[in-house]
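Example 9 (inverse folding). The structure is encoded as follows.
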């Protein structure tokens, strides 16, 4: 979970200097949409998705009765303990339409498998596995996060809203060793050396940090299940069931009973049981790349089985989705990640997309340089693949705007950039990322600021509800028009700055015309090749309606932003 850090000057583009004009043309066959969904008729594309990411424990507490389990009562360092967020809390926000209003088309949340019961104390107070990356048992949900029934309900609710679910999964390591949590057997894990990132071997065959046992993913040697896990299953009354399922898995696949294949079986069960749509793969560069291809193969099998068993719930014909956290990967590298002594194309090993660590370092570039760069790479060496762009996350110490001084500009740049957008919980409400008394990445992991939203608090001169409204309008527009994230970008004029994006595939066409830095007042814009004359369009930002004539449309841009679409 280590993150690549890029340092850059704090050049700020003011919100007042950004004025946006979008015109949209759609000429298509009726695309496939979610069954029973209120989603747009636009087809769902992972490469243009608007993905919401949250720490499960820090988003919304839907069931206070599950807040304490396994005697996790030790005093913790600030923001290092469980705070009550859970699966049911996410479901409640789906029911309320929170994600619909944001234009969210996929939700990714941190792992929900059972975490170590004990804590790690690094001298500043205890740290529990609230973040989900310290697995004790991959086959069971942690009761702090919720139940299997609640996970099943969440997936169904999301699908009814046209939202895909992406589970965060870990193969690289187990949880730390504590008084309550023994180390896994030595044929399962290594406890050293610590990674030093000099080359491939010192990145893969090592532990990320002290006391984080590293799974022997390179091994094909058959191993027995850990005694503590067998005893645990026996006490829970499911030993025979788990063993029978493992026997069936290894018989079907012919894989050796090596550590990685046990974990692959356990992870793909969540697809087969619940119909989750994708995996976000943690610490992807710290495992042999071939392991991800093995996971992808079994994930596709499980996804097909789920679709066959649940035909009425199938959203579309998309394959299973995998996005990798290859720490330090950047879009400028194209398909390649360089370990120093070895170059790897992770896209050849099951990944549809990789998290792009370069986005936040592009804040200094002007918008045309920025947008055209991303378009050329995504339409060139990355054609058919994607990147996941973000402004901040749960363990990136150098966010795009840590002080939340430019939440409007942040939303504009992220949600209009080619590629998939990742909205980290609270980006849309300017949640504080600098909490006094915290150590390390804990400062990025405060509870969602629902109280500030309810009170319409201010941060750096921005009202929280105004920030949210901006992100909502851009997000809904992005959701409705795949060209924003997946279209080919072309500049029309430099000043005033206009560009278009066009997406076309299998009879579906979506074209977007964007203008920035436009003066306020009445704006006459050329719509030739975008809208036919006589087309009625609506400004998604102000609600005003217009009609094109003579290859032009005249709009009122007094709000600074205009979003026109059919």
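The amino acid assigned to each position is listed next.
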């Amino acid at each position: 979970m280590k993150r690549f850090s890029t340092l850059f000057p704090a050049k700020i583009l003011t919100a007042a200097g950004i004025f946006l004009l979008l015109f949209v043309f759609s000429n298509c066959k009726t695309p496939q949409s979610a069954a029973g969904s209120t989603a747009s008729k636009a087809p769902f594309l992972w490469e243009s998705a608007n993905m919401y990411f949250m720490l499960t424990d820090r988003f919304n507490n839907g069931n206070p009765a599950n807040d304490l389990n396994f005697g996790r009562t030790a005093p913790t360092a600030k923001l290092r303990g469980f705070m009550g967020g859970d699966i049911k809390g996410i479901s409640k926000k789906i029911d309320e339409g929170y994600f619909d209003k944001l234009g969210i088309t996929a939700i990714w949340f941190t792992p929900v498998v059972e975490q170590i019961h004990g804590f790690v104390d690094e001298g500043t107070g205890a740290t529990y596995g609230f973040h989900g990356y310290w697995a004790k048992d991959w086959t069971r949900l942690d009761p702090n996060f919720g139940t299997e029934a609640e996970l099943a309900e969440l997936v169904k609710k999301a699908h009814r809203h046209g939202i895909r679910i992406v589970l965060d999964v870990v193969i690289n390591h187990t949880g730390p060793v504590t008084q309550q949590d023994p180390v896994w057997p030595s044929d399962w894990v290594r406890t050293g050396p610590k990674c030093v990132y000099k080359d491939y071997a010192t990145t893969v065959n090592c532990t990320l940090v002290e006391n984080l046992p590293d799974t022997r993913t390179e091994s094909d040697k058959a191993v027995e299940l850990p005694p503590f896990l067998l005893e645990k299953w026996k006490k829970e009354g499911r030993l025979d069931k788990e063993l029978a399922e493992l026997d069936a898995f290894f018989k079907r696949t012919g894989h050796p009973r090596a550590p990685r294949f046990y974990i692959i079986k356990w992870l793909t069960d969540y697809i087969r049981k619940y119909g989750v749509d994708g995996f976000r793969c943690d610490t992807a560069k710290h495992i042999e790349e071939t392991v991800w291809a093995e996971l992808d193969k079994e994930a596709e099998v499980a996804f097909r089985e789920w679709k066959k068993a649940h035909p009425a719930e199938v959203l579309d014909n998309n394959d299973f989705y995998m996005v990798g956290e290859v720490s330090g990967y950047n879009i400028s590298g194209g398909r390649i990640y360089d370990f120093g002594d070895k170059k790897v194309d992770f896209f050849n090993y099951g990944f549809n997309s990789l998290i792009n660590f370069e986005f936040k370092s592009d804040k200094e570039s002007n918008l045309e340089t920025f947008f055209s760069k991303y378009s050329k790479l995504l339409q060139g060496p990355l054609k058919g693949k994607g990147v996941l762009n973000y402004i901040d996350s749960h363990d990136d110490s150098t966010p795009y705007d840590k002080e939340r001084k430019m939440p409007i500009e942040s939303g504009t740049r992220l949600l209009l950039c080619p590629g998939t957008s990742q909205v980290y919980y609270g980006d849309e409400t300017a949640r504080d990322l600098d909490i006094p008394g915290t150590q390390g990445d804990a400062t990025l992991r405060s509870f969602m600021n629902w109280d500030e939203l309810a009170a319409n608090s201010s941060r750096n001169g921005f009202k929280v509800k105004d920030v949210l409204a901006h992100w909502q309008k851009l997000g809904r527009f992005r959701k409705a028009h795949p060209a924003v994230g997946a279209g080919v970008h072309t500049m029309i004029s430099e000043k005033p700055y206009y560009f278009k994006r066009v997406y076309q595939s299998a009879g579906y066409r979506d074209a977007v015309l964007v203008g920035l830095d436009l003066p306020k007042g009445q704006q006459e814009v050329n719509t030739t090749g975008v809208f036919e004359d006589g087309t009625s369009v609506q400004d998604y930002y102000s609600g005003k309606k217009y009609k094109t004539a003579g290859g032009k449309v005249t709009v009122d841009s007094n709000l600074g932003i205009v979003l026109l679409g059919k």
